[in-house]
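Work Package 3 (structural annotation) set out to generate three-dimensional models for the target panel prioritized at the project kickoff. During this period the team completed the workflow that converts sequence records into discrete structure tokens, so that structures can be stored uniformly alongside our sequence database. As a representative example, we reproduce one entry of 181 residues exactly as it appears in the project archive.
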Amino acid sequence: MKFLIGLLLLVLAAGAGFIAGDRTQEAETPTVTVTRTVMRTETERDLAVPPAVLEKREQILRAAEDRDYEAVAKLADPDGFEYTFGGPVAGGPAQYWRDRAAEGEDPLAVLERILRLPYTLSTGHYVWPFAYDKTGDQLTDYERRLLGDLLPGGTIGDTGYLGWRAGFQPDGSWVFFVAGD
């Protein structure tokens, strides 16, 4: 008798397990996959820019971030660095930039900012920002947004971009940081 009761309990348990398993098998577990694409421009690692230019650019960025006028000036090419269209200033580029800062401009903040923008290659020079050799009708809306308030009056005239710009020779020499024409 115990045998029959045990067999009956075993059959009932197996049946209950089969029914429970069958119902569980029909249930589906939804899976949600989220994909996110992130795009960014990394001019620091741009293989088209010579390593000497990228290295000098990085040194200038660090000094400009620190607002160290003397350190930034020391990174300029000693032979003919252009920093003003008005001729040399007593005290050199560092003094000129301090004078501009005293008048309400912040050349080193602008330098830092333009060196973080894309560049252009113009007449053998690597120049930041990219708008250096463009006229107003050549800029896209996206490029205008990138430049933001670097554009005087929000536009570029027929002569091109006249805001602060920095140029480098392929050997890494920093040859100009000027504004205006």
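The radius of gyration is 33 Å.
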